[in-house]
Amino acid sequence: MNKKLCVIGLGYIGLPTSAIFANSGWEVTGVDINPTAVEKLNNGEIHIEEVGLGELVKTVVDKGNLKASMAPVNADCYIITVPTPHNIDNTVNLNHVIDAVKSITPYLRKGNVVIVESTIPPKTMDEVVSPLFEKVGWSVGEDIYLAHCPERVLPGRILIELVENTRIVGGVNQVSTKKAVEVYKSIVTGEILTTSAISAEMSKLMENTYRDVNIALANELVKISKKLDVDALEVIELANYHPRVNIHQPGPGVGGHCLAVDPYFIIEKAPEESKLIKMAREINNSMPLFVKDLIKEFLPDTNSKITILGLTYKGNIDDVRESPALEIVNLLENEGYRLGIYDPHIKQEQINYYLSTFEEAVKGTSCVLVLTDHNEFRSLEKELVNYNMKDVLVLDTKNCVAVYNDNIRYINFGNLSELKKKEVTPLILN
């Protein structure tokens, strides 16, 4: 008989995780409070965008290995993959995790394994999750086995990395760790590292904090380089030739469910000791305002039209969570600019702004502002030439567009000084 798995949360991690386990022979039930997600999954369809996921889900649903439900079911193992957003004061909101734990307690049986994959602050497993089970009579580590295994995947490669990446498994005791490792061995080909629950919690947070701090360094370099008329992108490229230097790329800010959120979980637990982490968050959070000020400095007529290309926080995905592009749109709208917004990867219901076609977005524009590095934007020059857009300003905050036409004023974070050489005037298309 196949082992039974119940996954709580069918988002960007839970749904791929469910499909991978189902494909390896587990009998999987995915649980979500979103009726659309449940209905789509039971029809062999997906409600999120991820490379290869649609085909895999259809296959395992057709085989009968994966189904969805609005409520948990009896299972051998439970994996919790619900979101952990931050509150307005940047403290963690654990309500989804707490609700997920409470939802499965009526279905638990002796010997069950419970794994939390949601990103959580240090000590959450020991101080929040474990006591919830103890409160209803379970002896954690003896009757049921509890572990934390943070997800560590890149959107666009999730199905690959869920299998091939190194996994970190931290149980509340050694036997819990061992039981959780047995679960992951059924799908993971990469190395499985074992540790304590608190070390597993902290390792995930530090992985993303490292990247956030590194990006903050690059973004601060952009600001310094603008003042000194230095090419920041060239400086980064040259510095990275050093064998022990790896400066990340700058951008319009940091988004997503990890980098823009996880550092706050550390700050919350040790505010006096995390000064560098806090400063990095402030620098990255300042980039949308920096981009708005660039636009206003060189396009002072706020009646001008600006074309926004891309709203997701990174290229070739449909995820707008914590995306700095959304804040930039707010800032520009508040200044009075007319906006044409185009993103081929998202649906209208995901945002509160009107999504245009590309033709609508660029018609009558004075500036094309690239905020996401979608593949569709890499050949933007050809599209602009086709629309006879002479003297249009392209401000590429992701350094992803290849432009060689002299009639197109191309600016990225490496040549911001070029903006000073010629005033931008509104463009009127016939």
UniProtKB/TrEMBL annotation:
<dbReference type="GO" id="GO:0016616">
    <property type="term" value="F:oxidoreductase activity, acting on the CH-OH group of donors, NAD or NADP as acceptor"/>
</dbReference>
<dbReference type="Pfam" id="PF03721">
    <property type="entry name" value="UDPG_MGDP_dh_N"/>
</dbReference>
<dbReference type="Pfam" id="PF03720">
    <property type="entry name" value="UDPG_MGDP_dh_C"/>
</dbReference>
<dbReference type="InterPro" id="IPR028359">
    <property type="entry name" value="UDP_ManNAc/GlcNAc_DH"/>
</dbReference>
<protein>
    <submittedName>
        <fullName>Nucleotide sugar dehydrogenase</fullName>
    </submittedName>
</protein>
<keyword id="KW-0560">Oxidoreductase</keyword>
<dbReference type="InterPro" id="IPR036291">
    <property type="entry name" value="NAD(P)-bd_dom_sf"/>
</dbReference>
<feature type="domain" description="UDP-glucose/GDP-mannose dehydrogenase C-terminal">
    <location>
        <begin position="307"/>
        <end position="403"/>
    </location>
</feature>
<dbReference type="InterPro" id="IPR008927">
    <property type="entry name" value="6-PGluconate_DH-like_C_sf"/>
</dbReference>
<dbReference type="InterPro" id="IPR036220">
    <property type="entry name" value="UDP-Glc/GDP-Man_DH_C_sf"/>
</dbReference>
<dbReference type="Pfam" id="PF00984">
    <property type="entry name" value="UDPG_MGDP_dh"/>
</dbReference>
<dbReference type="InterPro" id="IPR017476">
    <property type="entry name" value="UDP-Glc/GDP-Man"/>
</dbReference>
<comment type="similarity">
    <text>Belongs to the UDP-glucose/GDP-mannose dehydrogenase family.</text>
</comment>
<dbReference type="GO" id="GO:0000271">
    <property type="term" value="P:polysaccharide biosynthetic process"/>
</dbReference>
<dbReference type="GO" id="GO:0051287">
    <property type="term" value="F:NAD binding"/>
</dbReference>
<dbReference type="InterPro" id="IPR001732">
    <property type="entry name" value="UDP-Glc/GDP-Man_DH_N"/>
</dbReference>
<dbReference type="GO" id="GO:0016628">
    <property type="term" value="F:oxidoreductase activity, acting on the CH-CH group of donors, NAD or NADP as acceptor"/>
</dbReference>
<dbReference type="InterPro" id="IPR014027">
    <property type="entry name" value="UDP-Glc/GDP-Man_DH_C"/>
</dbReference>
<dbReference type="InterPro" id="IPR014026">
    <property type="entry name" value="UDP-Glc/GDP-Man_DH_dimer"/>
</dbReference>
<keyword id="KW-0520">NAD</keyword>
